[in-house]
Amino acid sequence: MGLFRRKSRDEDELDLDAETGEDDAVDTEQEESAPVAPARPQGPWDEADAPDDDRQRLDLGGLRVPVLPETELRVEMDAAGQVVAVTLVRAPATMQLSAFAAPRTEGIWDEVRAEIAEALASSGGQAQEHEGPFGPELRAMIPTEVPGRGRMLAPTRFLGVDGPRWFLRALLTGPAAQEGPAADELLAALRDVVVVRGGDPMAVRDPLPLVLPKEVQEQAAAAQQAQQAAQQAAPRPQAPTVPERGPEITEIR
């Protein structure tokens, strides 16, 4: 079920300011007479207004995700091996983060929220809108196949944050889908996320590029090489042979 489908009208919508610089000239004239916009009151942060703190964050390119104690970070990859999302796991609660390009002049969460609710309704799920700590959100029940129990409705929570030319979506599952300590811990992490949109022109709703840090890639490569070496060094079972009687001893291989 596509919960973040892209409409055809968005395919050619690009950030012209990043490609031609024409919009920059217009915005400069407007900014000379308009008051400076206040800084964002809370995170998730744009790279331009991220706090100068000592918080440890994993740099994934388009996202800088806080590293929390007793929390596992997993990356989600598509068929081409491209990282498309990162998931924070405080078992059994999880929060998946995905970042996308957005228009310069307006947010897209209102539109995306309606699309998610429509998609859920058409697939046998349900969703209700609530006012949450980051604004409107969806509390949903998603049809899920549970081994040994068949098809059941699993609670899920969708949050969206519109930033300057980006949109961040958070998907909470497990105990974090309900209000309580499990959700509070992950939502606190969401406030510490930094989004790096970059200046390259992108079509609206295209995912922001995410990459594994070099040291993580090296660790993964080293672990794979060690696993391959261990497999090669492990003794391999040999096919049994027929015992042959020698002149003095009998040897069985």
Secondary-structure blueprint:
Elements: H1 16-19, H2 22-33, E1 45-46, E2 57-59, E3 63-66, E4 72-77, E5 83-90, E6 93-101, H3 109-122, E7 126-132, E8 135-146, E9 150-163, E10 166-173, H4 181-191, E11 194-195, H5 214-233, E12 244-245, E13 250-251
Structural overview:
- The protein is of the alpha+beta class.
- The protein is 24% helix and 31% strand.
- It has a domain of 170 residues: Protein Transport Mog1p, Chain A (3-Layer(aba) Sandwich), CATH 3.40.1000.
- The protein has a 7-stranded antiparallel sheet with strand order 4-5-6-10-9-8-7, with helices on both faces. A 4-stranded mixed sheet has the order 1-11-3-2.
- β12 and β13 form a beta hairpin.
- It is globular.
Short description:
The protein is α+β, with helices and mostly antiparallel strands. Helices cover 24% and strands 31% of the residues. It is globular.
Name the descriptors.
253 residues, Protein Transport Mog1p, Chain A, seven-stranded antiparallel beta sheet, 13 strands, globular, disordered N terminus
CATH fold category name of the domain at 44-213: Protein Transport Mog1p, Chain A
Task: Please mark out the parts with pLDDT under 50 across 5 or more consecutive residues, or reply none.
Answer: 1-38, 239-253
β-strand amount: 25-35%
Shape: globular
Helix percent reads 10-25%
Q: What strand line-up does the widest sheet have?
A: 4-5-6-10-9-8-7
CATH architecture of the domain at 44-213: 3-Layer(aba) Sandwich
Radius of gyration: 25 Å
**Largest sheet, described in full?**
7 strands, antiparallel
List SSEs in N-to-C order: HHEEEEEEHEEEEHEHEE
Q: Look at the structure and give the mean pLDDT.
A: 80
Q: Class by helix and strand content?
A: alpha+beta
Number of strands: 13
- Figure out the total of helices: 5
State the name of the first-level CATH class of the domain at 44-213: Alpha Beta
Cα distance, first to last residue? Answer: 57 Å
